[in-house]
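[step 3/7] fold_predict: job queued, chain A
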Amino acid sequence: MYMESVDESGNVKEKISYKSQMLHYGLYDPGEGYFPEIPWHWHEEFEFGYLTGGAIRYKTAREEFILREGDGIFINSGVLHALHPEGNPESIRLHSQFFGREFLAGALGNIFDIRYLAPVAEQKALEAVPVYGSISENMEFLEGLRRGIALSREGGPFFEMRLRSLFSQLWETVYGWAREKGEAGARRGAEDERIKAMLAWIGEHYGEKMTVEEIARAAHVSRRECHRLFRKELGTTPAEYAASFRLQRARELLMKTDQSILDIAVETGFGTGSYFGKIFRKSQGMTPKKFRRLYRESAGNLYKNPLEIRTGQRYNSFCKKDNSSGRGAIPHRR
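[step 4/7] structure written:
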């Protein structure tokens, strides 16, 4: 199983590819190494995470949780979320199990999907549920997550059926969480779709000059509403997010290509090598050239993660904020 946070068009919707596309299930099991911050993204699959080391801060648009060793979490389909290491990133061991509705239902639109899977995916008020190991009532659910990880690692005859049976039992609990949320999610769903539209637009145009007005038009909202949604949903501004996205893409190019520093600066919207170097050093604590060298000297283990573009993000530390009037373009050099 591998994942990409940015597709060829720059979309921040995460694409998950399984070893077997017929199963619609995958285990992301990174092993030892540096665990990077994972920026805002979403995917259609349901996600079940379990920590066997370290601590992670999970953020959704409206909630925030710190998970430690022995804790788990459920992330609903289509939910915007981000992950931030707490403490030493090298101590984190996160094991995430993903599956689409087809994994439990068999096929979209059948009775199992309509009655049990779709109601959870469509419950926008249900973003994420932390499952803390310190609460005795959670022991059975967490044991189920551990068994799922073990089954996926071991494979063998019938492991697919055992996995499906296991998560069918766990799903009764997840379905109960969705029912408890009631009808509170309708308005939230509309706001989620607007912010996703604006993030997707930034993903397609990050190499160009852009203004907040242009970002707002992608979701058919006013400039003021655009700022409100970014602050409410992501805790940042459109300018800060755009700058962080450009830096994310620049890191990917440094790791995956032999393009010159200047070419990367131009392609990602920083415009000049000197400006790019200044912003990169402020964010990463090193020059782009040194970052590339260290990454290659470590044979890719500087960020030991199959999700190569998931590198460290510091959203509010390196981006130029809007001025008080809010006028002008997103920081960009040409």
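[step 5/7] annotate
Confidence is low (pLDDT under 50) at residues 1-11, 302-328.
DSSP finds eleven helices and eleven strands in the chain.
exit 0
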